Amino acid sequence: MSTRQPSAPLRFAAVVLVFLALEALVFHTELYPSILEPDSSTGSLEYKIRNERVRVKNDRKQVLAVGHSRMALMPKVANELQPATGYTFATIGEPGATQRDWYYMLRNVDPDHNKYAAIIVPSDDYDDVDGWEDLGDRPTDMFFLNARLEMRDLSEFPGSYTTPERQQAAFRAILFKGLAFQRDFQDFLTHPRERLKKVAMYRKDSAQWNYEYPGDPQTAEGLEIDWAARQVIQYPPTWGPDLQQTSKNVLLAEPAPQTGRYTRYLLRWLGKIEQEYRGSGTKLIFIRLPRAPVINPTRPPFKADSAFRTLAKQPDTILSDEHLFDELERPALFKDPMHLNGPGSRRFTEILARHVQAVLGGAH
Length: 364
Hints:
By secondary structure, the protein is of the alpha/beta class.
């Protein structure tokens, strides 16, 4: 007596169902993200989020900074001032992260919008100067957020990209996370014991490493630029060829056409952050970061309807004086054309902590 075998379509359907079940169990839960390569873009952001989620918060007098590599807040330095300011500081700033990333990061560390007295939101400039890159189409955002994006984001996140190719890639990355994690997963299978050991070490110590980091001692002292001739007269003696070229690219870049693209982008993502926190009791504090070790005297035109100035009209937002950090814009306090060094970061943090105390109210 023969046993009838399932038809080919039924066998295929069963394989697909098993695949989808494993995909959902492993990649659409916290299971696989918990063992990501810590030094990958996704893994690095995951540790920033995880460490902030598990950080003990004894009250709501907490201040959290978002940002990218130029956000120089040193929580340890700020918290040494806690007896005077009354606030505890933390940061989830991540090198390369954009305002789109900040929105999803905040959604994960503060889903109920009730953990913080204030969120510090940095800006390179309040006039929303367009750059050459279209941030709305930046591919690294989906790499950063692979583990944080959910099925509910299938419409908005892919739709926020400006080209069909990136929209489709973002859609696939959310729907089939296994494909997004494919390279990381292959690396894990090659060296599982080493990966798990590294993950355990980062889980135990990464928060403290970041908290204790003293900053880079290198300076930009010696940097001189002839702005009229648009050329570097002298580089710091410690800067090699790569950093010299970077300084040219950053400080002497030709201005991009000003179309308002950056304003629209900022209004979309900072606007979503503002809407999420509106009426929650959490303030948004906008700050303009120190710009560079030497400042181009030619400034972009004042933009009254910039994203930051527009959002600052809302009741729970604070637009800080754009000259708050002017004293830091000197070579001795920068390590390269864009980033403060250790002493610069320390002074930045001290000024910022005192500023937060002033705008929110002092210790009591």
